[in-house]
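Table S5 (text form). Sequence records supplied for joint modeling of the two-component complex.
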Amino acid sequence: AQSVDQPDAHVTLYEGASLELRCSYSYSAAPYLFWYVQYPGQSLQFLLKYITGDAVVKGTKGFEAEFRKSNSSFNLKKSPAHWSDSAKYFCALEGSGTGSKLSFGKGAKLTVSP
Amino acid sequence: EAAVTQSPRSKVAVTGGKVTLSCHQTNNHDYMYWYRQDTGHGLRLIHYSYVADSTEKGDIPDGYKASRPSQENFSLILELASLSQTAVYFCASSPRNTEVFFGKGTRLTVV
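The corresponding structure-token record, covering 225 residues in total, follows.
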């Protein structure tokens, strides 16, 4: 079984602050991890992925994420945050076997105030 | 650019009626997915497929069927639509272990 947990449903901060969105996962083998962003009324867009290698991965829009096997986490970070970063962010996990599914967390709604 | 096209984009269905949501990709991706999005639940996987003519159950398959007659097409079928199936449905495709490309979504309202 696999699962993704995003414990913070809503995150609010001021522009210029550092943002960190938490993601933890449960999976028995090496996971493939992703972050996606959804702007209001739109579909999901890819931000970044971790497959293997360096624990810190960089993605689009200035975001990066750190994979920590020790505590099964894959937190998304950006500094400084901009008001245009306001959106809903989803962490996702894909299993490593052929035919494995892609599971998403419930998402975190980020609001960045000017 | 990778493209995933969903149709219809919006639909109102009657309780007990049959609904078919269609998805077409031009990416030649092996994997295709159907998710539903509800407030408070994020994206939940209904069915997926990693090869034509074969489908797999996701996390919430009850009340839904899926069909993948070709590499490009993946349909989601609600044989007896119910009020609880009102949601936004997203189709997606992927070559695996990399970016998933999403369609624009279908807003389904069951009345």
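Note: The mean pLDDT of chain A is 93.
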